[in-house]
Amino acid sequence: MAEPIQLSLHDAASPMMEELLFFHDYSMLMMLLIGTTVIIALLIASTTKTYHTALTDANHLEFLWTLLPVMILLFLATPSMRTLFLLENQESPNTTIKAIGHQWYWSYEYSDYENISFDSYMIQDQDLEKGSPRLLETDNRMVFPMQTPIRLLISAEDVLHSWTLPALGVKIDAVPGRLNQLIISTMRPGIFYGQCSEICGANHSFMPISTESVPTKYFEKWLDKMA
């Protein structure tokens, strides 16, 4: 979960988020190198009173500063394509969970198990337990097993919503009359929070997402409890 005045991204809780963090850091490094080079060139140009004519009219320099941007784009495109491939090339899921957006709450259905479905509403401030995050905690969490591929089916009943979990690197639109699919998995147990990321009405800000990743044996106990 994000901390107050946090400037960095969430700690990765899934292989998907690890890939996104790597690409983010790689891109920022490239931008830093480019920015530093441009600033140094501007400082040299602005402080040097004399210049050589070969620097202002030279075919080899024209070729060089055309080639360099192409190489930079290739350096950015290669890890980007790799990340996109890994995001799409997911394992076969073991469990299917359907999340449906409403104004202004989420409902979850465990399609592989009978009679397991529930609504998830935000807990009001006066009902929060000590230590629970404000505007993020819900009365029912979406529970799923860790280190297991989960198929997530996303839809909406009324207007556009967006199911987002930053720690897992997940953001997928919930569209009325349409099913969007996503495969998620976590590397460790924990509670992960998110929020609807599509403006969906007056109470859009009060439509949190809370999930809990647990070991398989605890997930089986939770299923027995919910059945």
Automatic annotation (TrEMBL):
Named cofactor requirement(s): Cu cation
Membrane topology: Multi-pass membrane protein
Similarity section: Belongs to the cytochrome c oxidase subunit 2 family.
The record's free-text note on cofactor binding: Binds a copper A center.
Catalytic reaction annotation: 4 Fe(II)-[cytochrome c] + O2 + 8 H(+)(in) = 4 Fe(III)-[cytochrome c] + 2 H2O + 4 H(+)(out)
Chief location category: mitochondrion
Location relative to the cell: Mitochondrion inner membrane
Upper classification of the organism: Eukaryota, Metazoa, Chordata, Craniata, Vertebrata
Protein name: Cytochrome c oxidase subunit 2
